[in-house]
Request: fold
Amino acid sequence: MTTSTLLAALTSAFEGAADPERAVAMSAYMRDQFPFLGIPSPARRKLSREVWRELPKPTGAELDAVVRACWALKEREYHYFGTDYAARHVRVAGPEFLDTVRFLLVTHSWWDTVDALASHVVGPLVTASPELAATMDAWARDENLWLARTAVLHQLGYKERTDAGRLFGYCADLAGHRDFFIRKAIGWALREYGYTEPALVREFVAAHRGVLSPLSVREALKNL
Reply:
């Protein structure tokens, strides 16, 4: 497989399904930060499967090239494809792929791609290469809110494998953060861990109510 082969198939499929009228509404929903082709999510996912079904599994280097090529295109649907492709083939990636993911997180940044990359790409990478947890520690302290959000969210789905010390440490350190996306991430991460360890989450929230935002507390306890 070559990156050019995949991109040719992808752009042909996506451009053929473009809907300019719908694209305006989709861009408006994302606060006009990105242009869209106007492909609804179910149709986009179907087209994506058709594109990669005909191609062999990529190598780590090919995966890197594909996602970077997708990010170089301006329409948001290509960024979604790159995110989904990375999640689908994350097992072929080595720990060095985290550097590429960092580029994706800080480029064309918004919650839609960041959250998917955090849980479906960064999380598996850290599981496969535990030494990358140190990078999560650094990201949790980073001034870039999307890296900090990723650090908080990367253990979504870990359940009993969750490093509770890290999760609670990040949430405590970022509890006073002013940004909505960080406050929301704290509540979301705690709520998800609450399905596995509800008593620990209740205890953490009770001990940090004075510094956690009302949003974080509400989200954390929503299902407890």
Notes: Residues 131-224 form a domain with the Leucine-rich Repeat Variant fold (CATH 1.25.10.90). The chain is about 65% helix and 0% strand. The mean pLDDT is 97.
